[in-house]
Amino acid sequence: MTDNFRDNEDRNRFELDVEGAIAFVTYRKSPGAITLVHTEVPPELGGRGIGSNLGRAALDAVRAQGQELSVECDFIKSFMTKYPEYNDLLARGEEMKRNAATYKASCFCGAVDLEVAGKPVFAGYCHCRDCQAWSAAPINAFSLWKSDSVRITKGETDIGTFHKTENSYRKFCKVCGGHLMTEHPRMRLIDVYANLLEGFTHEPTLHANYESKMVSVKDGLPKFRDLPAELGGSGEILAD
Description:
Number of strands: 17
Order of helices and strands: EEEEHEHEEEHEEEEEEEEE
Number of helices: 3
Strand content: 35-45%
Strand order of the largest sheet: 11-12-13-14-9-8-15
Distance between the termini: 56 Å
Structural class: mainly beta
Shape: elongated
């Protein structure tokens, strides 16, 4: 089992301590059974395979404890799809849900692959100065996903990270410089750039940070001065 891994029963979660930062899988336990609910890896541990190490250690712990397993966490579901040797842990009659749509993306050179599953929490267009500078474009088409819906399938060691502020950790390929995604720790969401996702239909519902727009877009969608209130913004809407 992975070093510095523990079952923190007081907090109902498996934990992996990496240099003082804690990645964890939350769970619910009942007599003879356990449900894995949610996986979270701190942004500073991203791109190092910590999520996979944690998932393997958590499932090994479930096996060692002799618990019947149910899974709600999308990350663990994806991990078990990749490593079917853990499927025998599933409780009788429990089936992995495989009907969620999956979309794949790659960097410019193909050294890094990732995939997302399900539906984004929010989708729209961002007009902030940072996105304009980062993308060298007036508008960024964003799709915000829960962190456990996003996984790296190839090239984790080739991912670089830059953060100008604590709000956004921007990920790129260290080989070609191609942009991949931006982690937003305070939102607990990840923006996987919509134009990278193969087969994904971008269905925008809003414009963010319209106050700093470079071009006007008269499409009938709400134009937020900064962000919607549910994303930590003022919720103030501007005219087209």
